[in-house]
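Input sequence (153 aa), recorded before submission:
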Amino acid sequence: MKILGVRCSNSDYTTCLLSGDAAAPKVEEMKHVNYPNGYGEAETLRWLRQEFQRLCNGQALDEVCIKRAETNVKRSNSLEARIQAEAIVALAAAESGCGKVQRKVGSTVAKDLGLKGKAKYLQTKLDTSAIPDFGDYSAKEQEAILVAWSCME
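Predicted structure, token format:
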């Protein structure tokens, strides 16, 4: 099974290609990319679509799972940009033939990893020993790993 975990922000995106199964996930590839400087909104979204079309076309993905912004985040231009980026990722994945695309908030990720549905449990109660060096990854990389892992069977 191959799952692409994605964590977007208003200025960059992070992806994690995870293979294996829920009991033994393996990080195949980790990527953090900043959006190009000097691009307007439409140009950035077009660039992002092309990035993910290339990325998804190059892999035999079973699923793409996107870490959504939490529901309690205050509405802002930054949040709007992130939501647009997440939609572009989902569109590009679907256009590239990926049959399943999900967007999850932290509580859903926790629940799907066998914890009670509280996002804070991802930091306090989740056993990440199945993923070597999990603690060495950045916060965004960890989110991409966890959202992909939560989609594994």
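Checked by second reader. The longest strand covers residues 24-34.
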